[in-house]
Design goal:
Blueprint: H1 2-26, H2 32-43, E1 46-47, H3 67-75, E2 84-86, E3 92-96, E4 102-104, E5 119-121, E6 126-129, E7 143-145, E8 150-151, E9 167-169, E10 191-193, E11 200-202, E12 215-217, E13 222-224, E14 239-241, E15 263-265, E16 287-289, H4 297-314, H5 323-333
Parallel strand pairs: 3-5, 4-6, 5-7, 6-8, 7-9, 9-10, 10-12, 11-13, 12-14, 14-15, 15-16
Antiparallel strand pairs: 1-4, 2-3
Helix pairs in contact: 4-5
The chain binds 2-acetamido-2-deoxy-beta-D-glucopyranose (NAG) (9 copies).
Length: 338
């Protein structure tokens, strides 16, 4: 037994030594740190067909056939690996492993090994565990898509370091905690999708500083407090989707400034008070869903008629809503009226 474990220890030492050698050699090449980081992460992943989807992720080393050593070292490029794309210098700039039936975590993903990564997509898989704070190392990241996994941590505050981010998709996970205020520093953010999680706390009013936002989706979640007046500053906003939260208070009249808004969904909250007549100015609005709140039914109907009237006035004759459209919109606004 003793000799057995000795052998084991020696062979592990041998493997570590081989790895060390391979690391020291690989580092000489441009993308080798990226190659090692991917191979290291691959070992931690499970796939329903034995990782066959990641079969292309291989170095062929350690390999007993010595002649392949040089070949391997000089020709490993991850650029043709499944889901991997490179920039013109052969450094990885995109990882897209969406819908790949992968199970695992990001715990052994070496974020700091991918300084050139701009797109990181792992949506529709079975990733679980934490969104690691080291994600803040992906300083060139523009596009982050983790939709439809089982991440169950907080959104790490280090997300604020991703200052080039334009798209942040965390929806359909089990994320908890509050929306980090650091998100408000991501001034290029265009698409923020946090819906279908367990986020609580308030909607940060500083989100009103993200003036490039076109899509803001924050529900279903467990968010409370008021709808910030500052959201009226998001002049490019097309979609404001915050249903099925615990939002209180009135609808801010500043939302009437969102002239490009096409969807305003606030159903299943605790909103009360008057519907601001300023919403009648939202001439681009197609979808307004306010049902299941503390608003009076007659108010909802009146608001929808005012909005439709303005749309009818502004539209070309051939673009005018039909009576069918009108009835559909009114029933969407107030589910229990009729
Ligand atoms: C995974 O690999 C093992 C051994 O190589 C094999 O016995 C098993 O059938 C494989 N499972 C699947 C799902 O391919
Ligand atoms: C590896 O390449 C070097 C020079 O490029 C050469 O001298 C050496 O013989 C090669 N080794 C093997 C095992 O092919
Ligand atoms: C990142 O990309 C730049 C420019 O293409 C390149 O010079 C650099 O070596 C890359 N970094 C790594 C770690 O590959
Ligand atoms: C990523 O992969 C998915 C699935 O193959 C595909 O639908 C999606 O368009 C890809 N994303 C990009 C940016 O190419
Ligand atoms: C980036 O990675 C390094 C180590 O690779 C780590 O020490 C550092 O904390 C990471 N940065 C962030 C923001 O987590
Ligand atoms: C938001 O912008 C205002 C001025 O436009 C500034 O005073 C405030 O500090 C900003 N807040 C954040 C969180 O960036
Ligand atoms: C943002 O909105 C608030 C309240 O609606 C307003 O007082 C403020 O001037 C706006 N800030 C900017 C930078 O537009
Ligand atoms: C609103 O949409 C129109 C048409 O799509 C566009 O021309 C205009 O620039 C948009 N306004 C803002 C503030 O984004
Ligand atoms: C936004 O709306 C408020 C209230 O309706 C109004 O007082 C304010 O002038 C508007 N701001 C802009 C920039 O249009």
């Amino acid at each position: 037994m003793y000799t057995l474990s000795m052998k084991k220890a020696i062979s592990i030492q041998y493997i570590i030594m081989l790895l060390a050698i391979s690391v020291s050699h690989i580092v000489a090449y441009g993308s080798s740190e990226e190659v090692l980081a991917l191979l290291n992460w691959k070992v931690s992943l499970q796939h329903e067909n034995n990782n066959s989807v990641l079969a292309s992720w291989t170095s062929g080393f350690p390999n007993k056939e010595t002649h392949s050593y040089n070949k391997t070292m000089s020709t490993i490029s991850p650029c043709n690996w499944y889901g991997v794309s490179c920039n013109s210098d052969g450094s990885i700039n995109r990882l897209n492993l969406s819908s790949s039936s992968l199970t695992g975590t990001l715990n052994s993903f070496s974020f700091s090994s991918f300084p050139n990564l701009t797109h990181f997509e792992i949506s529709i898989n079975n990733f679980y565990g934490i969104v690691p704070p080291a994600i803040g190392n992906l300083s060139k990241l523009v596009y982050l898509d983790f939709i439809n996994n089982h991440f169950s941590s907080i959104i790490p505050p280090q997300i604020e370091l991703l200052e080039n981010l334009e798209v942040l998709h965390f929806s359909i996970n089990q994320l908890t905690g509050s929306i980090p205020h650091g998100l408000c520093h991501l001034k290029f953010l265009y698409d923020l999708d946090l819906k279908h999680n367990f986020l609580f706390g308030g909607v940060p009013f500083c989100l009103g500083n993200l003036t490039n936002l076109g899509l803001l989706q924050l529900g279903p979640n467990e968010l409370g407090g008021a709808i910030p007046y500052e959201l009226g500053n998001l002049s490019k906003l097309n979609v404001l989707y915050m249903p099925s939260n615990n939002l209180h208070g009135p609808i801010p009249n500043t939302l009437g400034n969102l002239s490009n808004l096409t969807t305003l969904s606030l159903f299943n909250n605790n909103i009360h008070g008057l519907i601001p007549p300023e919403l009648g100015c939202l001439s681009s609005l197609d979808i307004l869903t306010l049902s299941n709140n503390q608003l009076t039914e007659i108010q909802k109907v009146l608001t929808s008629i005012i909005i439709l009237a303005i749309k009818c006035l502004n539209a070309n004759p051939e673009m005018r809503p039909t009576m069918y459209d009108v009835s559909q919109q009114i029933s969407g606004i107030c589910a229990d009226c009729f």
